[in-house]
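task queued by scheduler; priority normal; single chain, no ligands, no partner chains; default sampling; output format set to structure tokens
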Amino acid sequence: MDDNNYITGLQGMGGTGKTTLATQVGKELQKLKFFDHVVDTTVSYTPKIETIQDDIAGPLGLQLKNYNESERPKQLWSRLRNNEEKILVILDDVWGPIDFEKIGIPSEGDHNGCRVLLTTRYVHVCNSMGCERGKIIQLDLLSDEDSWTLFQKHAGISDHPPKHLLQKGREIVKECQGLPVAIAAIASTLKGQQSREKWDVTLKSLKKPMPMHGVDKDMTRFYKCLRYAYDDMKDEKTKELFLLCSVFHEDEEISTEILTRYSVAMGIFGEVEDKYDDFRSQVVVAKNELVDSCLLLKNAVGSAKMHDLVREAAQWIANNKIQVVKLFNNYHLKERRILDICHAKERAWISFLATLTLPSLRF
């Protein structure tokens, strides 16, 4: 990163790998000693200021829990302007202008060794944040060869596959239109599959016309890819867990414990007489299958989250599987749409939700 560039924008459509690239760039810059510290936080569509502050402050050894709302940004600002250290702040998944002063991030004219790298889908966000034309990096879709390389990796095929797989594979990759998330999801369904018929079915399914009500024209093929990956899952409970994960907030880290409690409450796993550890084990197995299928992202501490583009597609898939139920969230009664995965014998579990401490859910 140029020393003269305070804010650099990484822009590209959803699913092109902005987060992965920004993370790898940060690691490489720190390894090469360009920065003493690289910290990152996910901003999302509805930014949570305290969470962003804590994400930045924690790795820098600054604890903000004992400071009030007005003191927190001052403390963070002072830490980021340390004259003796160079700090890179990565702001991931930015949807609109951010008030740096409210968070505690130094301004462009008074930043010392602090630099900012933000990722976003939109050029206008980069412009509004002060990224001049030379400071905006546009991340395009993958080239044909890069797409094929990524497909090979996730499908587990060699550099010299059988001729029939090579031909079909190239055609399947073309249907993914260079979008890494789509390529990874489709390739994962073909891992270990050597039969010509399986690859034929996959290609025909991706080429087959499908009603796409409410889907942006540019995203129709991606949604078809995700729909195929979903339909290809053999275990119904894993499919239900996938749809359940889309209920959580965008970019929300979903712990195994919360996912287990939700799954028990919704009757996805286990019977009444089963023990909690049995429920949890079933959830972990299903969650790992979704991670292996590139439909969930797993972090270092074992929790998982759903890529925002996958989440949008999952909610679209679930559109005809939704029913309205009432959930108690702390002291507030709210109407929420929940996936229609509650069978008649399992509906009694709904009342169990009222006893849980649940995060707010947004659709």
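post-processing summary
- The beta strands are 7-11, 37-44, 87-94, 114-120, 136-138, 297-298, 304-305, 322-329, 332-339.
- The longest strand covers residues 37-44.
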